[in-house]
Write a structure and sequence with these properties.
Blueprint lengths: L1 E10 L2 E12 L4 E5 L4 H4 L1 H10 L9 E7 L11 H11 L10 E3 L2 E2 L5 E2 L4 H10 L4 E5 L3 H4 L6 E5 L2 H8 L16 E2 L15 H13 L3 E4 L6 H7 L7 E2 H13 L13 E2 L7 H5 E2 L4 E2 L1 H4 L4 E4 L7 H5 L2 H6 L1 E6 L2 E6 L3 E6 L18 H8 L4 H5 L3 E4 L5 H4 L8 H19 L10 H7 L4 H14 L3 H17 L7 H8 L6
Parallel strand pairs: 3-4, 5-8, 8-9, 11-19, 11-20, 13-16, 16-19
Antiparallel strand pairs: 1-2, 2-4, 6-7, 10-12, 14-15, 17-18
Length: 500
């Protein structure tokens, strides 16, 4: 008897339905798994065998053939354990149930218990789209799967519990879908802007960056507060919409980094400067999201920017421009979302004190030139806001003056984001505007047009720089609640561009 049980394969960030077929025939005892399984699936033979025996059932003492269809699709991971066990038991006529509308995922332990697996949310979304009515997942993945409505979700503790349910001896109750609000943000900021003394210009630039998702580079001597400011930015980021929360939860689920039930807040990733190309961009034999995808809809903070390897930094060019990263491997081409806000911090020279008004720089002009050239011109051109963070005098650091809190700044940022959502009709920011949208929404009056023309000629800005100036000016106007870009907005935007 040939049995068929539905499961799913994770391909990039998406899932594809997989049919697990099993056939028990006469012959010497052996279990053969075909259909491009990886090592983890090949090793499932022993897990499945022990789980079935420890669930008070018997494993066939004959030849067992298992096929994972479609056979040309690579199969990876341990979540096929449960469907393989069920397919073998149905083929061996130990259990019989209608499997056509059901999908199963889960890793089996030797005693028959079920362990959680990554990618359950992507699988549940695909199952719903394919018309599957019931999804059976490990209990630890239950709340994640319950984010998908319109399909029955069952949390399973063990193989024996599932068998009793399928035989209608002891039923498992379906879990109702989780209802989330229109926006999510339950985490208080770790560092508040009011705790950072001075640096008003840098704070203003971070507010603009958070409002329009603009990339920003902070440059200054050691101890001036660059890292502190970048970390405080997490507290002024706007709330996640439900759509964004589901998208991020799906990414973290597939990456196996979902620490909670779902992602509530915008991610802030801070990889070390020794991070490899693959770790930052994504990839590997089994392509997984990298740091730039894990920063999607959030912040990627690169401290000590020039210390990152040149090839790693250059890999950021295409994601910064397109908002996606495409990883090509022999097994196929995978596209991951990468709409993140880059926040970079750097010292102006190797010793860190070039241009400092207190401590003298010890570097030669050649050393300074080489250090600053570690970051290529095309990459710098893709950064919207370039901000100097000078050393603060003692009087400023020791002042009792009260500064604006992150909560107050966040109110303005949230309003600016709402104006952008209303403008574009979706969760889209000014930094993502296309050329057509720039022409439509960044209209300048004659005075502003003259100012832009003079600026372009004086500083020899590139076409990309001009578009980024207009995008930042549009965000500044949104922060002020203005329908059009004023010359003042444009002038403020221009001051954030690097000028030789």
């Amino acid at each position: 008897m040939i049995s068929r049980i539905f499961s799913a394969a994770i391909i990039g960030l998406e899932a594809e339905l997989v049919e697990v077929e099993a056939d028990v025939t006469n012959g010497l005892p052996a279990t053969i798994i075909v259909g491009l399984p990886d090592t983890a699936i090949q090793e499932s033979k022993e897990r499945v065998k022990s789980a079935i025996k420890n669930s008070e059932c018997s494993y066939p003492q004959t030849r067992v053939s298992v096929n994972l269809a479609p056979a040309d699709l690579p199969k990876l991971g341990t979540h096929y354990d449960l469907p393989i066990a069920l397919a073998i038991m149905v083929a061996n006529e130990q259990i019989n149930f209608h499997a056509g509308n059901k999908l199963f995922v889960g890793e089996l332990s030797l005693d028959g218990g079920l362990r959680g697996v990554p990618g359950v949310l992507a699988i549940a979304l695909k199952a719903k789209k394919a018309g599957v009515e019931e999804i059976y997942v490990p209990e630890s993945n239950l709340r994640e799967a319950s984010l998908v409505s319109g399909v029955k979700i069952f949390g399973v503790k063990s193989l024996s519990q599932l068998l009793k349910h399928l035989l209608k001896v002891s039923l498992i109750l379906a879990t109702p879908p989780i209802e989330l609000g229109s926006s999510l943000n339950i985490q208080a900021p770790i560092l508040d802007m009011k705790d950072v003394s001075g640096q008003e210009m840098a704070k203003r630039a971070l507010e603009i960056a958070a409002s329009g998702s603009h990339n920003i580079l902070l440059s200054g001597p050691p101890g001036s507060g660059k890292t502190l400011l970048a970390r405080a930015m997490a507290g002024i980021l706007p709330d996640l919409s439900l759509e964004e929360a589901l998208e991020l939860t799906k990414i973290y689920s597939v990456a196996g980094k979902l620490s909670g039930n779902f992602v509530y807040t915008r991610p802030v990733r801070n990889p070390h400067h020794t991070t490899s190309n693959v770790a930052l961009v994504g990839g590997g034999a089994n392509p997984k999201p990298g740091e730039i995808t894990l920063s999607h809809r959030g912040v990627l903070f690169l401290d000590e920017f020039p210390e990152f390897p040149r090839n790693v930094l250059e890999a950021l060019r295409q994601p910064l421009e397109d908002g996606v990263v495409t990883v090509a491997r022999a097994s196929g081409s995978f596209t991951f979302p990468a709409k993140f806000t880059l926040v970079a911090a750097q010292n102006p020279c190797p010793c860190g004190y070039y241009g400092d008004n207190v401590q003298k720089c010890q570097c030669s002009p050649t050393q300074i030139f080489k250090y600053q050239k570690k970051i290529s011109g095309p990459l710098l051109d893709r950064i919207d806001l370039h901000v100097e963070v000078p050393r603060l005098p003692y009087e400023k650091m020791a002042t009792k003056e009260s500064f604006e809190s992150s909560a107050d700044i966040k109110v303005r940022v949230q309003l600016a984001r709402e104006r952008q959502t209303k403008r574009f009709g979706q969760a889209k920011t000014n930094s993502e505007m296309s050329l057509v949208e720039i022409k439509k929404y960044c209209v300048l009056n004659s005075e502003a047009e003259t100012l832009l023309a003079q600026t372009m000629k004086r500083y020899n800005f590139s076409g990309r720089s001009m578009h980024r100036i207009l995008k930042v000016a549009r965000t500044i106007a949104d922060l002020e609640g203005m329908p059009d870009i004023s010359p003042t907005n444009l002038a403020e935007s221009v001051q954030y561009r690097p000028k030789e």
